[in-house]
Amino acid sequence: MSAKIIDGKKIAEQIRQEIAQQTEQLKTSRGITPGLAVVLVGNNPASEVYVRNKQKACEKIGLLSELHRFPEDASQDLLLKKISELNHDDKIHGILVQLPLPPHINEQSILQSIRPEKDVDGFHPVNMGKLAQGEPGFVPCTPLGIREMLLRENIPIQGQHVVIVGRSNIVGKPLALLLMQKSEKGNATVTVCHSRTKNLADITRQADILVAAIGRAQFITRDMVRPGAVVIDVGVNRIEDAYSPKGYRLVGDVDFDAVKEIASAITPVPGGVGPMTITMLLNNTLQAATQMINN
Asked: Distance from CA of residue 14 to its chain's centroid?
């Protein structure tokens, strides 16, 4: 048996077409273009790539995209001033601060300064609190993308045992909250594991759906996966590869080649969860614009 490869790129493209149509309707009927402002501090190469991809995606589907660049040594006060301006800018519906920020800036202070209704990354304590209580709000993009991927692949979530390896505020915690929601898109039994979990393999082998989000290359091996499980790989890691022109290649947190032989379905890296994350950011920006009209 070899697993079905879940094509995140293809699913993301379908959703982007839907977002583009809804964006066009919003422009035509109400004269409003959903706007996303990205704040970038410093010149972290990975952040540069992410931001460039986000801008391209916005332009392709007709969203307004603004980039606000700051040098590495920009003060926290300067960033807070810019976010305050964007909070009061009616043409901007979503604000995203690209992480990580330089060490001298308090990330929480910056994220908390974004108005919750413009927090399209879903990291504001108000939105996290709403998620915990099962109330409508913005959900972090990677967990939202994972759920959407499962739904569109007709992979059952209700009643399934989901094991998440990783407890970050960006993926592990919000994904657990999302999949245990009392709704037809949730109702899973969720176990969250991490670096201090004892007998990890015994727990991961119980999973109907196993999510790897621990940030360690090829950490999940074949013996940690129950035959027939669905495996979602969130990790993106560089490993040396003498045969690659770049000298490295990207791998996930799962030993893909070994695990795909026993899983029923698996996401590749790249081309799995990654495209879904940016797509959900576009979706959240569209929703923010729609909600501002309705309010």
From this structure: 17
- Asked whether residue 80 falls in the same domain as residue 205, the answer is no
- Domain containing residue 256: CATH number: 3.40.50.720
Apex 192 CA angle, 239 and 206, nearest 5: 90
Joined together, the tokens standing for residue 236 give 């993106």
CA distance 290 to 71: 33
Q: How many domains does the chain have?
A: 2
pLDDT score, position 140: 97
pLDDT band at residue 199 under the 50/70/90 scheme: very high
Asked whether residue 133 is domain-assigned, the answer is no
pLDDT the model gives residue 61: 94
Task: Please tell me the distance from the alpha carbon of residue 241 to that of residue 263, in angstroms, as a whole number.
Answer: 26
Active site residues: 54, 98, 121
Kindly report the number of other CB atoms within 10 A of residue 203's CB atom: 18
- Asked if the model's pLDDT at residue 24 lies above 70, the reply is yes
